């Protein structure tokens, strides 16, 4: 068996320890004689799995009691609709468009009410985060929406926007659990787990209780009402049971690593290795405004498309997988989530140095 260094943006690398544990429990989960995949979601064993997962996540993120934690399906993209359907009481919401994911969320919300694009960085291919200290927030906005870490472009909000008292909703898919967060600053924090937590198929929604009600847009499907899932503690129907089990293992791994403060330090250290190299390189350069750089997704280019393709090909041959940039932007992107070991980044930089010497 040989493992590669997987720089995929998602589904992405998971901690090896977690995968090994899951393998050991595959045929017989803790004496139950069955796999978690084969288990009733109403069983005692599964009840413990999902309850522990929630408790560990609450501990890691220091989630206050007046927030619900929901394990749902449909990926992050279903939330693009679920958020306006549940939250747009005045049918007005403000969107800050910093990339494709925020743009999709904005377009989806436009189907249900008046979505206002109050800021955007599209003028410079989303390579920066706009100044959000004094935006024209709508008087009657039900919420202000951001995508906190822009997976495709590699930018991150270092300070949250001034929402002037309005509820903040954030898609944190690609920075989930990468550093501590103050949950109280948000009304809703949500993310697909396949970037930094677990297998695709699970989306976690952390939502303040006062935002959960039966008062949703007419025609909202039962399965798309937060209240239905909150009242049933994520067991209204069969949840993505195996995926949640793996998420739970990753939460335990994060706790063992020392929690989110430690992960932040580790992620900063990892990202610095790569960014420092990009800043001094004669061949490679980062594509993002320095102060907005993501710790998780690091896009870079040589400035020559043929050379980019050659790099991706040779990197793959050397055991560095999925370094090709998103299909809409080209170039390269290294996603260096929690589970990417420091050696992975060190070895990548070593390889880039060698490639530079041979090609510059
Ligand atoms: C990947 C991603 C999405 C889409 O996630 P799906 O689970 O595929 O719907 C949305 N937002 C962000 C920030 C992402 O990185």
CATH class of the largest domain: Alpha Beta
CATH superfamily of the largest domain: Type I PLP-dependent aspartate aminotransferase-like (Major domain)
SS-based class: alpha/beta
SS strand fraction: 15-25%
Main β-sheet description:
7 strands, mixed
Q: Assign a percent range to the helix content.
A: 25-40%
Total E-strand runs: 14
State the helix count.
Answer: 9
Distance between the termini: 35 Å
Order of helices and strands: EHHEHEHEEEEEEEHHHEEHEEH
Placed side by side, the strands forming the largest sheet appear as 2-10-9-8-5-3-4
Low-confidence stretches: none
CATH architecture name of the largest domain: 3-Layer(aba) Sandwich
Number of domains: 2
Q: Which ligands are bound? A: pyridoxal-5'-phosphate
Mean pLDDT: 97
| Rough outline | globular
How much is the radius of gyration in Å?
Answer: 21 Å
Topology:
Layout: E1 5-6, H1 16-24, H2 44-61, E2 67-72, H3 75-87, E3 92-97, H4 100-109, E4 114-120, E5 144-147, E6 149-150, E7 155-156, E8 168-171, E9 188-192, E10 203-208, H5 226-231, H6 241-257, H7 260-280, E11 285-286, E12 297-301, H8 305-317, E13 320-321, E14 332-335, H9 342-359
Parallel strand pairs: 1-13, 3-4, 3-5, 5-8, 8-9
Antiparallel strand pairs: 2-10, 6-7, 9-10, 11-12, 12-14
Bound molecules: pyridoxal-5'-phosphate (PLP).
């Amino acid at each position: 068996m040989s493992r590669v260094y997987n720089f995929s943006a998602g589904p992405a690398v998971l901690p090896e320890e977690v995968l090994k544990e899951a393998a050991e429990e595959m045929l017989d989960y803790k004496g139950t004689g069955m796999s978690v995949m084969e288990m009733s979601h109403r069983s005692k064993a599964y009840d413990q799995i999902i309850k522990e997962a929630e408790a560990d996540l609450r501990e890691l993120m220091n989630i206050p009691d007046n927030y619900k934690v929901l394990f749902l399906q449909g990926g992050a993209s279903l939330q693009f609709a679920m958020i306006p359907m549940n939250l747009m009481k005045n049918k007005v919401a403000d969107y800050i468009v910093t990339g494709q994911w925020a743009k999709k969320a904005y377009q989806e919300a436009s189907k249900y009410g008046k979505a206002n694009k109050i800021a955007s960085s599209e003028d410079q291919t989303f390579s920066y985060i706009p100044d959000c200290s004094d935006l024209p927030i709508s008087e009657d906005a039900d919420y202000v929406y951001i995508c906190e870490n822009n997976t495709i472009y590699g930018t991150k909000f270092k300070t949250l926007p001034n929402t002037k008292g309005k509820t903040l909703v954030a898609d944190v898919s690609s920075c989930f659990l990468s550093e501590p967060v103050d949950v109280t600053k948000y009304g809703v924090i949500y993310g697909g787990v396949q970037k930094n937590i677990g297998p695709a198929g699970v989306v976690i929604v952390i939502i303040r209780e006062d935002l959960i009600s039966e008062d949703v847009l007419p025609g909202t499907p039962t399965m798309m009402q937060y209240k239905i899932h909150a009242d049933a503690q994520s067991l209204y129907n069969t949840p993505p049971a195996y995926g949640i089990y793996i998420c739970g293992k990753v939460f335990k791994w994060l706790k063992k690593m020392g929690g989110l403060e430690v992960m932040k330090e580790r992620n900063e250290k990892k990202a610095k290795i790569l960014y420092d190299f990009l800043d001094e390189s004669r061949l490679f350069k980062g594509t993002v405004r320095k102060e907005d750089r993501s710790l998780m997704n690091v896009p870079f280019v040589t400035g020559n498309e043929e050379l980019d393709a050659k790099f991706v090909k040779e990197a793959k041959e050397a055991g560095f997988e999925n370094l090709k940039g998103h299909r809409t932007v080209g170039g390269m992107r290294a996603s260096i989530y929690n589970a990417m070991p420091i050696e992975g980044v060190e070895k990548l930089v070593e390889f880039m140095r060698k490639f530079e010497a041979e090609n510059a």
